[in-house]
Amino acid sequence: MRKPVVLITGAGGEIGHGLIARLAAAGDKPIITLDLSPLDPDISRHVLREFTGSILDTGLLERILAEFEIDTVFHLAALLSTRSEFTPTTAHQVNVEGTLQLLEFSQREAESHGRTVTFLYPSSIAAYGLPDLETKAAAGRVREDDYNLPTTMYGCNKLYCEQLGRYYAKHYKQLAAEPQAGRVDFRCVRFPGLISALTVPSGGTSDYAPEMIHAAAQGEPYACFVRPDTRIPFMAMPDGVEALLTLAAAPRARLTRSAYNLGAFNPSADEVRAEVLRAFPDAAITWVTDVKRQGIVDSWPADVDDTAARRDWGFAPRYDFERAFHEYLIPTIRARYGR
Ligand code: SER
Fold first, then answer.
1. Which end of the chain is more exposed for a tag (fewer CB within 10 A), N or C?
2. What pLDDT was estimated at residue 1?
3. CA of 201, closest atom in ligand 1
4. What are the structural domains, with CATH classification, of the chain?
5. Pocket of ligand 1, beta carbon within 6 A
6. pLDDT in tens, 120-131
C-alpha cells in the first residue's frame, strides 16, 4: 500500500515556506508540492516530490492523482487582493476555478482510496466588507457571518470558495442515488494579515506592515501607503502555520463551522511604525497614502471575533503584538539581514 502524503499548492508562497519547514520538522508524512515556480532550495529539500505547474492544469492533476495517495491538502495557491484588482478575471480563474479543481481532485482522491481527504483552505479578512469607517469603528470584533460584502475580487473569491468547500463537505451531488458528500473534509480559516520574518508578501494590501519592518531591517526608506490610523488584524506567521496544523488535527465532531476567524493583534499602522523605530531607530518611514488601496483596507474589519476557533479547536496564538516583535520578528529579521 502506498504511504499517504500531504499536498501543498502554492507551496513557494509565504505560508508554504513556514508550513513546509514545520511539517518537515514534525516528520510524520511525506510532502508533495505544486507551484508555478520551482521552490527555493531551503524548502525543496524537505519535499518528497515537487511539481512545477499550474493548479489549472488538469493533466498535471491527473498525474498527481495517479501517482500519490493524498490524505491532506493545504490549498494555498492564490492571487492576493491588490494583484487581483489589476487582473480580476485571472484572479477568478486561479482563486475560484483553481479551488474548484482542487476540491474535485480531492473528492476523486477520496473516492479512489476510500478515505476522507482533509482539505485546509486559507480564507481571509478580505471576505468582509465594511461600508465606511464609522461602521468599522462601531463594529469592533466582527463575527464570521456579519458584513460578508467584500469589495475586492480576491475577497469575493475567498468568500465564495468557503461556500464551495462547505458544499463539497456537506451537500456534494445531493441528488445522486448514493450521495458522496463528506469525502472532502473542508476546514477553513480566515487569516488576518500575516507577517513573516523570513519572506515578504507580494500583491497583498496588508503588505504595508511586513514591508515596513523588512525595509527598516535592511536600512531602506519606506513610504507607507495607508494612513497612520489604519487598523486591521495581523498575526505572526508561526501562529498562522500552527493554526492550520491544529485545525487539520482537530476532531471533526468538534467543528461547528467550516470557516473560522483568527485574531492575534491589531495595531494601527502608526503603532507598527513605533515598534519598528524602537528596534531600528534610524528607519526612514514616511506616509504617502494610496487612496485606492486605503479604501480596500478601510473595508476590512479593525478586529475579529475568534471565539469559535478558540472554543472548537483550541486556537491560541502564541504571539501578541509585543511578543511578535520582540521574540519573533525583530530577532529573526536581524539574523536574516545580518543587522
Ligand atoms: N493579506 C492578504 C492581502 O492583503 C489578505 O488576505 O491580500
1. N
2. 58
3. 1
4. 78-337 (3.40.50.720)
5. 80-81, 124, 126, 154, 191, 193, 204-206
6. 999 999 999 999
